[in-house]
Design a protein that fits this description.
The complex is a heterotrimer of chains A (362), B (374) and C (497).
Chain A (H helix, E strand, L loop, with lengths): L1 H9 L8 H25 L6 H10 L1 H15 L8 H15 L4 H25 L4 H20 L19 H8 L8 H10 L4 E2 L2 E2 H19 L1 H11 L1 H6 L4 H27 L10 H11 L11 H21 L3 H25 L6
Antiparallel strand pairs in A: 1-2
Helix pairs in contact in A: 2-15, 3-15, 4-10, 4-13, 4-14, 4-15, 5-6, 5-7, 5-13, 6-7, 6-13, 10-11, 11-13, 14-15, 15-16
Chain B lengths: L1 H6 L9 H8 L1 H16 L6 H26 L7 H22 L6 H32 L5 H20 L10 H7 L13 H18 L2 H11 L1 H6 L4 H27 L13 H11 L11 H20 L4 H28 L3 H19 L1
Helix pairs in contact in B: 3-14, 4-9, 4-12, 4-13, 4-14, 5-6, 5-7, 5-12, 6-7, 6-12, 8-12, 9-10, 10-12, 13-14, 13-15, 14-15
Chain C lengths: L6 E12 L2 E12 L3 E5 L6 H8 L7 E6 L2 E3 L4 H6 L2 E4 L11 H5 L13 H14 L17 H13 L5 E5 L7 H16 L3 E5 L3 H7 L2 E6 L2 E7 L5 H9 L17 E10 L3 E9 L3 E5 L6 H9 L6 E6 L2 E2 L5 H7 L1 E4 L3 H5 L6 H6 L7 E2 L2 E2 L5 H11 L15 H13 L5 E5 L7 H16 L3 E5 L3 H7 L2 E6 L2 E6 L5 H8 L2
Parallel strand pairs in C: 3-8, 3-9, 6-7, 7-8, 13-20, 13-21, 16-19, 19-20
Antiparallel strand pairs in C: 1-2, 1-4, 4-5, 9-10, 11-12, 11-14, 14-15, 17-18, 21-22
Helix pairs in contact in C: 4-5, 14-15
Classes of the chains: A mainly alpha (362), B mainly alpha (374), C alpha/beta (497).
């Protein structure tokens, strides 16, 4: 009884926080979305229409899928997965190659490739504690070289029935060796099915949107409800503590990077289908925008803090900004510039407010 | 028992002095090795017709590498260098054209050309310094992770360059200076490489190497990179050092972009997006050149030698009939190998603290066993 | 001149406020030239804060500071340095990638103008190293990462001394030194005293304070309790001043009955750290392990827990041989290890308490890959009550807690795993008296419930009052075992071999 009293005397400190700052950090994205919505309404009366908002969502669904994956990496305290763009590209290419056996095989092959990439990334970063930025950048370059080398820098069209055009490549000759009958497969219908992937509509809504929503919900459940997600939180907050708590850190980090790569693969398949061509530049820039969205959504770069809901908010914010700027009549490149500037400002403000709260920086 | 105690000291895993020296100077070994291999496979590798263009293409990444190394030494990353190169290129060309027109175009004569170039140079460098300042202030004073800041900067700048160029390639309306900059000073086969651009690059390189290793300022930057807190306790203004490292990075990248654009007489808004990414080349060279990934140790000249080595590999690949795509792959694999090596050696060090002692113990036990059996 | 008493340093009415607490409350403190002034107090008493003010780490203190009679405002470490304050920090701040000479002369590298003069740097470094008697042992161009820990502590001191400070502040300088190294440090301090330097010596170790200091100031809860000559006080009086209550035997020795063997360790070896360690542990026994710094105490704990690689050896728990080197496996079999480094390895400070406590049993509270934190609620409330953690809300962030309560959270984290063998490494380091008492009671109660506890500690009274048996470890080997009538002297003698 005596101890309790002495403890109470000592510990009345630092337990009070400024409620406004707490709520601002918690619901910052919502505030931003509301603010953007307000501007949008001022700019155009059509802004709040269901049609326009759906357009916004549709436009960011690829980004949403990628961001869901990368958010696991950031949640693990590993700054980001810069190999996402080439993972997207290589998955698209692989999907196109394997599509000749049927669309579903193509998708499976693409996702398996993504999982492999994630496994390698995760092993090096989780086990050897390599710097994630540098390693994933190196991985990105390797994958880029691989795709370029395999196709001699040419693009690969799903409906290119004439195999002669790219017998110089790497994948097709290999597959021809494994399966000599490969050229007799009817490509036209398969290619049509693949190209139609991005333009499939269900209940008047694009398939990608549904995929994004499914990926995000799955991501939400995995991040906040699963054993893996909760262990990931500890690993992200402090790698050493997690290690000393008997958590298998290597496994957790590998899984986080696999999540990222698999999501990138899914997005890559859809993006390739949208562009109707597989090439090394598919997905370029998605890593940076995804990190932007995730940080805007309130996830901390130091790991272990944030939520999938915030990521969705961040992605939606990116969509809103670009939508509003388009409505005003700002060009794509100027939009990029403004997005970058907004990002830097938001992050700086967020970091300073976090520091006022006595927390570590973003 | 006493002897045992002597062995049983709690030392860190130490390597031989020779290995440490070799490891810290590994880039020179690597460079020599590449030259030997390349010359053995293709004797014409050492010909002036091959060496000169190779060095010329290396000038851009060498210059960018200076700033990149500085930032990494101070313990940060500057991922925006690729975009800054384009800013430098586009701004210098665009501003030259603007002022050239203001000064009366071709009618203005040499005077118009010179003044227009000077103003354009000043504006572009100023732009670089401002970019560096923003990066540096956000990292040092705003306490935002450099990765985030420079990614934001990268996005913003690449948008800016496209808007500035309106998506087109900009060429200078007068190519007089272009010819001056690229003209060889000495017309002897190997010394053809001595253009004004080369000389500027060499001077900048040497200046920054001396600044880093021979001056108090540079030495304290190294300490900031190795341990920021220790530096702060020693009365070093860490924030200022970090900000300046970013300014150096952005301004060298701008200068590199400017000189490159002038020498090509073209500023492309997407340079590096479709070809070999300069960021990749510079990152790979900096790490291969021995700059410690967490900061605190490194050298600008070693980075430059690494750039040349990588270019030599590229060159050798082309000479052996392999394409541009293989270059990308090779550079990626090289970077990956070095990163793995660095991480693995750290990992081993952490895992096996005191293993040296183990080897000695094993030997001792062997001897004991031998003694007991005989 | 207003320094009538030859005070080199006078601090008057110093206060420093942290959010929600007054860390230093109107303290007067002064030091004469050529004296060692010990500063004592429990953790959180304000001694470190007071000295950090002196070192210029805070720019928002109130009060006045006079150095050699002149009023100074110490608003940055650099100002403090130029005013003659030298501080040797508890946490060493070393630039590991740089050489010894660069570390020593980090702030002002000698040279001509803006350039560095390497020869001068080398000779000056040797000069500085000679003051801490390292000039013959260490080459100035050695990289700092290749220097052992006690040497780097001395190098840190050389770094401070080279500025010729008037006042030298040492914050727990002996925490990572062995006894011979401590004696060497005391010799150096003696010499500095003769040179007329004013030394402030912060320490928890009473015998050190009695050995080196001339005067002592005791702080408690941010207030000054007393300043007096060391010859005027006894150990008991000092402790009483620090603790603020009469010291009685507040914990009783644990009465232990043999309930059968649970753990058998044989020939456990990690090259370079522990060597063929063998011992047995019974159910409900509290086994103390004592050893000086670097003797392999912590390493033994880590190897037992599977945190570090083991080269060879066997661990048999309840007759079952366990695979070594896997923390996860050990934990599932019931061996838990409470780490000595709370901040780095123990608790993720920015997570809420409940997450921290349940962090090691996430997989146990899961079904089919889904985690049910609600299952852990019962454990949480039970542990909160048992350890009387304050504040009683498990949603509070761990970083907001005091050191004592953080330690309780850490203990709770391992208790939640319901271990059969609990290894505690420095269970009460940096903890206030109340929490210490409670933690000791908890340990004894655990033992009564049949849990075997291994206490690795450098705190002798703790070992005396808790352990049923004490193993002394030196240079990685068990060199003595004490079973009956354990007292501090016996333990100390055993540990020193």
């Amino acid at each position: 009884m005596e101890n309790v009293i002495t403890n109470m005397k000592e510990d009345v400190r630092k337990t009070r926080h400024n409620i406004v700052t707490v709520y601002l950090t918690k619901f910052g994205v919502l505030a931003m979305i509301a603010f953007l919505a307000l501007i949008g309404m001022l700019v155009s009366p059509n802004f709040m229409s269901a049609n326009n908002l759906l357009n916004v969502l549709n436009a960011v669904s690829y980004l949403g899928i990628v961001a869901t994956g990368i958010s696991f990496v950031i949640y693990a305290g590993q700054y980001g997965d810069l190999s996402a763009p080439m993972t997207m590209a290589i998955s698209g290419v692989i999907c196109v190659e394997f599509m000749r056996y049927g669309l579903i095989y193509g998708v499976i092959a693409a996702v398996a490739t993504g999982a492999m990439i994630g496994l390698i990334n995760g092993f090096l970063i989780g086990k050897l504690r390599t710097n994630a930025i540098i390693w994933t950048l190196a991985m990105n370059f390797i994958l880029e070289g691989l795709v370029r080398w395999s196709y001699k820098g040419t693009q690969i069209y799903p409906d290119m029935a004439n195999a002669k055009t790219y017998t110089t490549g790497f994948f097709l000759p290999l597959m021809m060796k494994l399966d000599p009958n490969i050229l007799e497969i009817d490509l036209k219908t398969r290619a049509a099915a693949f190209n139609g992937l991005a333009s499939t509509y269900i209940f008047g809504l694009p398939l990608v949107l549904f995929v994004m929503i499914i990926v995000m919900i799955t991501g939400f459940i995995i991040m906040s409800k699963s054993t893996f997600g909760n262990q990931l939180k500890i690993v992200g907050s402090s790698y050493n503590v997690a290690k000393m708590s008997g958590v298998n850190c290597t496994k957790i980090v590998i899984l986080a990077f696999m999540m990222s790569s698999i999501c990138a693969s899914i997005a890559g398949v859809f993006l390739t289908s949208l562009n109707q061509v597989g090439a090394f530049y598919i997905g370029q820039g998605y890593d940076f925008i995804a990190v932007t969205a995730i940080i805007l959504g309130g996830m901390s770069l130091s790991g272990g803090r944030g939520s999938m809901l915030g990521v969705f908010g961040g992605v939606f914010t990116i969509g809103l900004i670009s939508n509003i700027l388009t409505l005003i009549g700002v060009g794509t490149f100027t939009q990029k510039m403004i997005t970058g500037a907004i990002f830097v400002v938001v992050v700086a403000v967020n970091a300073s407010s976090l520091r006022k709260l006595g927390r570590d920086y973003a | 028992m006493r002897k045992f105690n002597d062995i049983f000291k709690f030392k860190k895993c130490e390597r031989s002095v020779l290995f440490n020296n070799l490891n810290s100077n590994r880039i020179y070994v690597f460079a020599v090795l590449i030259i030997v291999i390349m010359t053995m496979t293709k004797p014409e590798f050492l010909g002036s017709g091959n060496i000169v263009p190779m060095i010329k293409t290396s000038l851009l990444p060498i210059m960018v590498g200076i700033g990149f190394t500085y930032v990494m030494i101070a313990g940060n990353f500057d991922l925006s260098v690729g975009a800054v190169i384009n800013v430098g290129a586009a701004v210098v060309m665009g501003e030259f054209n603007r002022f050239f027109a203001i000064f009366g175009g071709d009618a203005g004569g040499t005077k118009a050309i010179v003044f227009a170039w000077i103003i354009a140079f000043a504006i572009a460098i100023l732009a670089g310094i401002i970019i560096g300042l923003i990066n540096g202030l956000l990292v040092a004073k705003g306490k935002v992770h450099s990765f985030i800041v420079t990614i934001g900067m990268l996005t913003a700048l690449s948008g800016f360059v496209y808007t500035y160029c309106k998506g087109n390639t900009i060429s200078a309306d007068n190519s007089l200076f272009v010819n001056v900059l690229e003209k060889s000073l000495i017309n002897i086969p190997y010394l053809k490489v001595l253009t004004i651009r080369f000389v500027i690059c060499a001077i900048v390189l040497i200046f920054f190497e001396i600044l880093l290793l021979r001056t108090k300022w540079g030495r304290s930057l190294l300490i900031v990179g190795s341990n920021k807190e220790a530096a702060w306790h020693s009365g070093i203004d860490t924030d200022k050092k970090i900000i300046l490292s970013f300014v150096i990075s952005a301004s060298t990248a701008t200068l590199a972009g400017m000189l490159f654009a002038i020498s090509m007489n073209a500023a492309v808004p997407n340079y590096g997006e479709r070809g070999i990414n300069p960021l990749m080349l510079v990152l790979a060279s900096t790490i291969i050149g021995g700059t410690v990934m967490t900061g605190g140790s490194g050298s600008v000249v070693k980075t430059a030698v690494a750039v040349l080595s990588i270019q030599a590999i590229f060159n050798g690949l082309i000479m052996n009939g392999l394409g541009f795509d293989v270059q990308v792959l090779a550079a990626g694999i090289l970077l990956a190998l070095v990163v793995i090596y660095e991480s693995y050696s750290i990992y081993k060090q952490v895992l096996n603290k005191g293993v040296r002692v183990a080897a000695e113990l094993k030997e001792k036990r062997k001897k004991l066993k031998q003694a007991t059996t005989t | 001149m207003n320094n009538k008493n030859n005070y080199v340093l006078e601090m008057k009415k110093i206060s420093k406020r942290f959010p929600g607490t007054l860390a230093v409350d109107c303290i007067d403190f002064n030091v004469k030239a050529g004296e060692v002034h010990a500063l004592m107090g429990e953790n959180g008493a304000g001694k470190s804060t007071l000295m950090k003010i002196l070192a210029g780490l805070y720019n928002d203190y109130s009060g006045e500071i006079y150095i050699a009679g002149n009023k100074v405002e110490l608003y940055s470490p650099y100002i403090a340095k130029t005013e003659g304050v030298g501080m040797v920090y508890q946490e060493l701040s070393i630039a590991y990638n740089r050489s010894v000479q660069e570390n020593i002369f980090a702030g002002d590298i000698p040279g001509n103008g803006k350039f560095v003069d390497m020869k001068k740097l080398r000779s000056k470094t040797l000069n500085a190293l000679s003051r801490v008697k390292l000039d013959k042992k260490i080459e100035p161009s050695t990289l700092m990462k290749n220097v052992s820990q006690h040497e780097s502590q001395l190098i840190e001191m050389a770094k401070v001394l080279k500025d010729k400070p008037r006042i030298l502040v040492m914050d727990e300088p002996t925490s990572s030194l062995s006894s011979t190294e401590v004696n060497m440090l005391f010799d150096i301090i003696e010499e500095l005293k003769k040179d007329g330097m004013a030394i402030v010596y912060i320490s928890h170790h009473l015998h050190e304070v009695f050995k080196v200091s001339d005067r002592v100031t005791v702080l408690r809860d941010g207030k000054k309790i007393s300043t007096c000559d060391i010859s005027e006080v006894t150990k008991e009086q000092l402790v009483e001043m620090m603790v603020g209550q009469k010291v009685t035997d507040f914990y009783k020795q644990h009465a232990y009955q043999d309930k059968g063997k649970i753990l058998e360790v044989s020939n456990l070896t990690r090259y370079g750290f522990i060597h063929e360690v063998s011992f047995q542990l019974s159910k409900g026994e509290i086994l103390g392990v004592v050893g000086l710094a670097g003797a392999g105490r912590t390493e033994l704990g880590r190897c037992l827990a599977g945190a570090d690689k083991v080269d060879y050896g066997e661990i048999i728990l309840e007759g079952e041989k366990i695979k070594l080197g896997s923390m996860n496996k050990m934990l599932s079999k019931g061996i838990a290890y409470l780490t000595e480094d709370r901040k780095l390895e123990g608790l993720a400070l920015r997570l809420p308490n409940k997450v921290n406590i349940l962090s090691s049993i996430i997989s146990r509270l899961s079904r089919f890959g889904i985690y049910f934190p609600s299952k852990g609620k019962g454990v949480l409330t039970e542990l909160y009550q048992k350890l009387s953690i304050y504040p009683p809300d498990p949603n509070v962030g761990t970083s907001n807690l005091s050191g004592g309560n953080q330690q309780k959270i850490l203990l709770a984290k391992w208790l939640s795993t319901k271990p059969k063998v609990l290894i505690l490494d420095e269970p009460t380091r940096g903890v206030d008296v109340g929490a210490k008492k409670l933690i000791h009671e908890t340990i004894v109660n655990l033992a009564k419930e049949g849990v075997s506890v291994i206490v690795l500690s450098s705190d002798l009274p703790e070992l005396v009052s808790l352990s049923d048996r004490v193993l002394a470890i030196k240079q990685g080997r068990i060199i003595a075992e004490l079973q009956e009538e354990i007292d501090e002297n016996k333990i100390l003698l055993a540990a020193n071999g």
